[in-house]
Amino acid sequence: MVGSGQHDFGAALLDPDLPLPEGITAPNGKKAARRFAIYRNNVTVSLIDALAGIFPALQRLVGETFFRDMARLYLVQEPPRSPVIFEYGGGFADFLSQFEPLAAYPYLPDVARLERAWLDAFHAADADPLHPGSLGAIPPERLADTTFTPHPATRIVQSRFAAISIFSASREERTLDGIRPANAEDGLITRPAYSVEVRQLPAGAADFFLALISGATLGEAADSTIARYPEFDLPSAISAMLEAGVFSACWFGEPNSEDPS
Amino acid sequence: MTQSAPKPPIVENSRFPSGPLPPRAGAGLKTDHVDAILADDYRIGFLEVHAENYMGEGGPAHRALAAIRSEFPLSVHGVGLSIGSEEGIDTAHLERLARVVDRYQPSMVSEHLAWSSHDAGYFNDLLPVPYDRQTLDRVVAHISQIQDRLRRPILLENPSTYVAFEQSTMSETDFIREIAQKSGCGLLLDINNVFVSATNHGWKPMNYLRDFPLELVEEIHLAGHAEDVDDEGDLILIDAHDRPVADAVWKLYETVICQAGALPTLIEWDNDVPEWPVLRREARLADAILDRLGPASLLGSRHAAE
User: Fold this and answer.
1) Which of A14, A18, A34 to mutate to test the interface with B (most CBs of B within 10 A)?
2) Selected residue of A8, A9, A72 to mutate for chain B interface (largest B Cβ count, 10 A)
3) What pLDDT digit, counting tens, does each position of B210-236 carry?
4) What domains sit in chain B, N to C, each tagged with a CATH number?
5) pLDDT score of B300
6) What pLDDT, on the 0 to 100 scale, is given for residue B14?
7) Could you tell me which chain A residue has the CA closest to the CA of B238?
8) ipTM higher than 0.90?
9) Which residues contact B190 (CB under 8 A, 6 or more apart)?
10) Which residues on B lie below 8 Å from A91 (Cβ)?
């Protein structure tokens, strides 16, 4: 069994139908099955607990027992790839979207995406959000040429459902009364200081921010957004982005010039 | 900035107090306890963190740890390097650990005699290794690789185990002693693990401690364990870290301190974590034993003399 011991041991940890790995013993000729099952249980319970910690709103929505049974299936299909356990669950939303028993709740995968993005924002690098004065200091005629550096914590989740309202209600332990799941919503996740904030965005704002994040100038982003959303309220979107801390710096003239404002 | 005469290099860790872990009680750091620890009149001897919890780039977790680190000695305890892995050390993960160590300049860095990753993924548990020559050589090579990268010795912790391996040819104590001698690492003696493994494998814990190279121990761990039964209905202990330290483990701890002198002693409590005062009470029990038995110990002068 040279070299293959841990492969067999690991496979049997995740699949209780596999026999005890060869060479595993207990003292005085005792059986080792229940002893090996302690490892199985440790692995399973610790990973389910990890998922419950990463996706608390989801657990509350489907109920603890259902969540834990579902998490048990997911972790066998997709065990963590890294010992950094707070990064686990990147594929949970896709798993949910294929999970037949939840087919009647198509908003749940987007709730999972929001929760995963929330934790990514929590652990993202520190940066001061863009100071409103920096934008105010740009000469008006240069505003259209201005580009922005996204804050490391900024995430945008666009949903065909009311995932942001449902996420917020669940995290705040409110009922879903008054929420119409079929209403599409866009969510903005930021961490302007040390608290993660989640906002629902008005129509067009997500496209506008995504354009700026990908490097478009303020003028380009505004034009493309207004073309798609004629009612888009540009001044409101700019104040929301300053308040939420979507960006950490802005530049005018050549992008990435040596002259940050 | 104007150029001036060459200055001696600035020591990078000067932003945090440096020095060894004190031979006092410490506690495993939990986020919910940070404010209480900083505000407490009782100054805990040191704090220990799981390295993997601080492998993110920034955010509130790092802010809290930086506040703790500016006031207390710190020990960084890895749980994910998989030192016993057949597949070699994950160099990306070693780099992550090196970043945490560079960032916080801890007094101590430690890891486990265990494996936790394989081709299937990361199992989030400390899994056992057979005690044979091949495994020993592999573990020594991995510890050397880690120490070379971190540019400092680490401590290796004895495991708690529930099964054994037919292929083992050495006792756990002989295995650990030889790893330490060959790799130059120090040892972290987890006395709860000794009690758990001794019960599970039918050893006498006192015999284990007699055979263990206490002179290489630089830190002690204490924790609570749970009870279960094996296939034969006999008692088996689980290393659960979810309750106070058992009386039998405190007794073994007294024996170790009598023998080895006062050593930095961590109280671990990772599941069903109580309020800070409960953890503090455990730490004070350890402090009392260190005060009472440390000075009169057989090896007690070795740390002061070093």
Assistant:
1) A34
2) A9
3) 999 999 999 999 999 999 999 999 999
4) 18-300 (3.20.20.150)
5) 55
6) 57
7) A38
8) yes
9) B157, B158, B160, B220, B221, B222, B223
10) none
Query: Closest Cα of chain B to A3: distance in Å?
Result: 6
pLDDT at residue A155 greater than cutoff 70: yes
Quick one: tokens of A134?
A: 């920096």
For chain B, which ranges sit under pLDDT 50?
1-11, 13, 301, 304-306
- Flag whether residue B231 sits within 8 Å of chain A, measured between CB atoms: yes
Q: Do B56 and A86 touch (CB under 8 A)?
A: yes
Contact A83 B85 (CB under 8 A): no
- Which residue is closest to B227 within chain A, CA to CA? A38
Angstrom CA distances, A155 to A57, A94, A152, A170, B134, stand at 18, 18, 9, 20, 48
Q: Which of residues 118-157 of B touch A (CB under 8 A)?
A: 118-125, 127, 130, 134
| Window 240-279 of B, Cβ < 8 Å to A | none
What is the mean pLDDT of the segment spanning A230-258? 86
- What was the pLDDT predicted at B1? 38
| CA distance, residue B44 to nearest chain A CA (Å) | 26
Instruction: List pLDDT tens digits, range A46-100.
Output: 999 999 999 999 999 999 999 999 999 999 999 999 999 999 999 999 999 999 9
Tell me the average pLDDT across A6-25.
94
Q: Tell if the CB–CB gap between B118 and A6 is shorter than 8 Å.
A: yes
pLDDT of residue A226: 97
Give residue for tokens 């050549």: A254
**How close does chain B come to A64, measured CA to CA in Å?**
17
DSSP track, chain B: ----S--PPPPGGGGS---PPPSSEEEE--GGGHHHHHH-SS--SEEEEEGGGG-SSSSHHHHHHHHHHTTS-EEEE-SSS-TT-TT---HHHHHHHHHHHHHH--SEEEEESSEEEETTEEEEEEE----SHHHHHHHHHHHHHHHHHHTS--EEEPPP-S-EETT--S-HHHHHHHHHHHH--EEEEEHHHHHHHHHHHT--HHHHHHHS-GGGEEEEEEE--EEEE-TTS-EEEE----SPPPHHHHHHHHHHHHHH----EEEE--SS---HHHHHHHHHHHHHHHHHHSTT-SSTTHHHH-
Class of the domain covering A125-261: alpha beta
Query: Which residues, numbered 191 to 230 in chain A, qualify as contacts with chain B under a Cβ-Cβ cut-off of 8 Å?
Result: 191, 194-195
Instruction: Encode pLDDT of A185-204 as tens digits.
Output: 999 999 998 999 999 999 99
Amino acid at B222: L
Out of A2, A30, A122, the one facing B231 most closely (by C-beta) is A30
Verify whether the Cβ–Cβ distance B231 to A34 is below 8 Å.
yes
Binary contact (B163, A25; C-beta < 8 A):
yes
Q: For chain A, what are the domain ranges?
A: 1-105, 125-261
